[in-house]
């Protein structure tokens, strides 16, 4: 990855931080964004001088587009910023649905549009983080499952439209980050992990390694693919987070 520039969204915590650290370790120059400067500062402390942090809300279209345009050539874009709240579909208001759809799909699409010129110049690569098997439905995450299925479709569509740019949709199952721990009680996470065919979660290091591999060119014969990094959980009965 030496000499290559990567942008990682949500780089101040969890998966985004692990990805940023791995890319720096492999020689890339990494720009990390997120809303909380103190979280980004901790990633910067761990990463060293080849990591540059910029506080940015990816839902702020004007700021995000200006920032990405300013980067110029871009070898790798990792769209990792995302999240949702767990609620039954009947309890999700219009504003709630819009907030989750925006963060996980529409803002991501806008960032991709802003990055298109820089990615095309570089013959770059994109890794869009999604969620395992959203097309099967996830009770308690109707808004997020819809947005995440949209990411897979967006990834495939842009792979057709943007020749020379490789796009991947990487969909983890359960990764035991602090973020997921804040959203789901331990017993729900344990139940999901126990019903996974491999009987295990996916580690942060594994997600980071997959992003690094896809970003390095190992998979350059591939574009538009959905890769489910979930221990096979997408193969079994669709998940329910509501009991
Ligand atoms: C088949 C097998 C598949 C296996 C898959 C198994 C599943 C694996 C486990 C799940 C994996 C997921 C992991 C992760 O995503 S890790 C990241 C964890 N962290 C988060 O997700 C937190 C992120 N959430 C947020 O940052 C915010 O909630 C969000 C950005 C989404 C919204 O914030 P915003 O500030 O924009 O929104 P507001 O607070 O202004 O609220 C907007 C409207 O939304 C309503 N709302 C908010 N929270 C709730 C709630 N809990 N329930 C219902 N409604 C909610 C809020 O009321 C506002 O609407 P109204 O104005 O109409 O009231
Ligand atoms: N952990 C898991 O089991 C799984 C996670 N995922 C997905 O992987 C991604 C990372 O998850 P994880 O590391 O576990 O969770 P985190 O909550 O730790 O990561 C989310 C990151 O996104 C950033 N972020 C959120 N909203 C914005 C915004 N509007 N603008 C810029 N940055 C934002 C957050 O930083 P800040 O708040 O400072 O802005 C945070 O760093 C998410 O998209 C998540 O949904 C998918 C499948 C499973």
UniProtKB/TrEMBL annotation:
Compartments, as annotated in UniProt: Peroxisome
Pathway terms, separated by semicolons: Lipid metabolism
Molecular function GO labels: trans-2-enoyl-CoA reductase (NADPH) activity
Keywords: Fatty acid biosynthesis, Fatty acid metabolism, Lipid biosynthesis, Lipid metabolism, NADP, Oxidoreductase, Peroxisome, Phosphoprotein
Top enzyme category: oxidoreductase
E.C. code: 1.3.1.38
Record-linked Pfam families: adh_short_C2
Catalytic activity: (2E)-decenoyl-CoA + NADPH + H(+) = decanoyl-CoA + NADP(+); (2E)-hexenoyl-CoA + NADPH + H(+) = hexanoyl-CoA + NADP(+); a (2E)-enoyl-CoA + NADPH + H(+) = a 2,3-saturated acyl-CoA + NADP(+); (2E)-dodecenoyl-CoA + NADPH + H(+) = dodecanoyl-CoA + NADP(+)
GO biological process: fatty acid biosynthetic process
Record carries keyword Metal-binding: no
Role, per record: Participates in chain elongation of fatty acids. Catalyzes the reduction of trans-2-enoyl-CoAs of varying chain lengths from 6:1 to 16:1, having maximum activity with 10:1 CoA. Has no 2,4-dienoyl-CoA reductase activity.
Summary of subunit composition and partner proteins: Interacts with PEX5, probably required to target it into peroxisomes.
Stored PANTHER family: PEROXISOMAL TRANS-2-ENOYL-COA REDUCTASE
Protein's UniProt name: Peroxisomal trans-2-enoyl-CoA reductase
Source organism: Actinophytocola algeriensis
